[in-house]
Design a protein that fits this description.
elongated, 5-stranded parallel β-sheet, Arc Repressor Mutant, subunit A, 22% strand, Rossmann fold, 217 residues
């Protein structure tokens, strides 16, 4: 359910809009007093509908305070017809401005549209890595192409990828790999040089002197 906070001094209008939006699974909590609205736990709501003509505090000031403290989409809903109010409201951070009177259906449409845009812009994009591990095939994929690796090279590079961006000690590699445990005196330095040659210059296996190695890719 979408949760909307409304700060609106017209109780009759607020009730009308609340009842209309409820049929679309939008729950509206309305406050006539802006000070109560500001202390209502704004971060638990999905969207704010804000009137400008409020008792004790101008809606523009309310908008400024909310924008400064919270990350919430704001629709200004006002009967004030001064174009400067609309411009100021949008300039200080409101996302939309709907002048009264309006059909509640239009408010519903704007709520859905704004939340869709807001959600899209706030979607966290997972980083795209050039090196990926395919555990099923025991392969490492570099730019969508499997690398030709020896068992020791695979084990070392896999460990570096799993700890991408962090320093992996020499001991972690030597004692954390079956290849080294059972492969005798395989040279870690040689293996690392081979891996560097199989990767291009944009992928760095950095030697942290006296500590270990770090994959930067």
């Amino acid at each position: 359910m979408i949760k909307v906070l409304m700060i609106e001094d017209d109780v009759e209008f607020a009730t009308l809009l609340t009842n209309f939006l409820r049929q679309y699974q939008i729950e509206v909590t309305s406050y006539e007093d802006p000070f109560l609205g500001l202390s209502a736990g704004i971060d638990k709501y999905d969207l704010l509908i804000l009137d400008l003509t409020l008792p004790g505090m101008d809606g523009i000031e309310v908008c400024k305070e909310i924008v400064a403290k919270y990350d919430i989409p704001i629709i200004i809903s006002s009967a004030r017809s001064d174009i400067s109010d609309k411009i100021i409201g949008l300039q200080i951070g409101a996302d939309d401005y709907l002048p009264k009177p309006y059909d509640p259906k239009e408010m519903y449409a704007r709520i859905i549209s704004l939340l869709r845009r807001y959600k899209k812009s706030h979607t966290i994009k997972e980083p795209t890595y050039r090196l990926k591990i395919d555990d099923n095939k025991e392969q490492i994929i570099f730019d969508d192409t499997p690398l030709e690796l020896t068992p020791a090279e695979y084990e070392v590079l896999k460990l570096l990828i799993q700890n991408r961006g962090a320093t992996v000690s020499k001991e972690q590699i030597l004692y954390g790999s079956e290849v080294f445990n059972y492969g005798g005196d395989a040279s870690l330095a040689v293996i690392l040089n081979r891996l560097r040659n199989k990767l291009d210059s944009s992928v760095t296996i950095k030697t942290i002197r006296g500590v270990g190695y770090r994959l930067l890719a």
